[in-house]
Amino acid sequence: MSAVGTAFEKAAAENRAVLIGYLPAGFPSVDGAIGAALAMAQAGADILEIGLPYSDPLIDGPVIQEAVHRALIGGTHIADVLRTVEAVADAGVAAVIMTYWNPVDRYGVDAFARDLAAAGGSGLITPDLTPEEAGPWLTAAAEYKLDPVFLVAPSSSDERIALITSVCGGFVYAAALMGTTGVRDLVGEEASVLVSRVRQHTSLPVGVGLGVRDGQQAAEVASFADGVIVGSAFVQRLLAADDYEAGLRAIKDLAAELAAGVRAGRQPR
């Protein structure tokens, strides 16, 4: 079992959801991103998504786009992303990379899987890779014991959900709202309906990315999902901070609030 699977198993034993936090590597700097990721983990994040900065982040909203832009302007490379993963994994926290497919394809699929595994990474989330085109990645992931995480959406048909979940590892990423990433005011029923549909096709845990911004929303999502995925809210805390130390305090406070939320939200099944 990967570190991701272990995190979900541990949370299930505690009758709670997993908190999955996202930050792009290289923002506000390479070392700054490492420090921020470790701060999130210390405050209660169970799994960390390390974003690989990419020049055309189509599904990301303005908050994450701005952070990714700054990371690219700062000269962040794949080696820096892997160093960030290594630092998180060395701290005993499950780390996965969130990336568009083009950088992996250019790097070399087998080489990327090899280097990710060597850094202690647990898997790869690929929002723009379809199962039909994922053969080389699935082969490499199996060889290096990495989790291939794919996305489902409310628009996905039952047949599509069955196909996507059949190739997933670690967990299924439920993008529970259509559109770009960003915080939302309401959770809504659409997310719980999507989780129920996914569970008809797989026993894998289901993590929900919804634009959660606070502990109350985390508790709502944790009441029906196995994982609560939070990205934009963390990035916004760093963007809005007067300086790096203030940003660290802000994301630690948010992580602690969200961690309390995922523990409060689960009801016995």
- Count of helical stretches: 12
**Straight-line N-to-C gap:** 24 Å
User: Overall mean pLDDT score?
Assistant: 92
Give the second-level CATH assignment, the architecture.
Alpha-Beta Barrel
The biggest beta sheet reads:
9 strands, parallel
Give me the CATH fold name.
TIM Barrel
Helix content range: 40-55%
> What is the domain total for the residues?
1
Q: Which descriptor suits the 3D outline?
A: globular
CATH class: Alpha Beta
Order of helices and strands: HEHEHHEHHEHEEHEHEHEHH
Low-confidence stretches: 178-184
Structural class designation: alpha/beta
- What's the number of extended β-strand segments? 9
CATH superfamily: Aldolase class I
Structure, explained:
The chain is an alpha/beta fold and 269 residues long. It has helices spanning 3-13, 30-42, 62-73, 78-90, 101-107, 109-118, 135-143, 158-167, 189-199, 215-222, 232-240, 244-265, and strands at residues 18-24, 47-51, 94-98, 123-125, 147-149, 151-152, 172-175, 206-209, 227-230. Strand 4, helix 7 (135-143) and strand 5 (147-149) form a beta-alpha-beta unit. The longest helix is centred in the C-terminal third of the chain and has 22 residues, at 244-265. Strands 5-4-3-2-1-9-8-7-6 form a 9-stranded parallel β-sheet. Helix content is 50%, strand content 14%. Mean pLDDT is 92; it is low at 178-184. Helix 2 (30-42) runs parallel beside helix 4 and helix 11 (232-240) runs antiparallel to helix 12. The protein has a single domain (3-265), classed as Alpha-Beta Barrel (TIM Barrel). It starts with a helix and ends with a helix. The protein contains 12 helices and 9 strands.
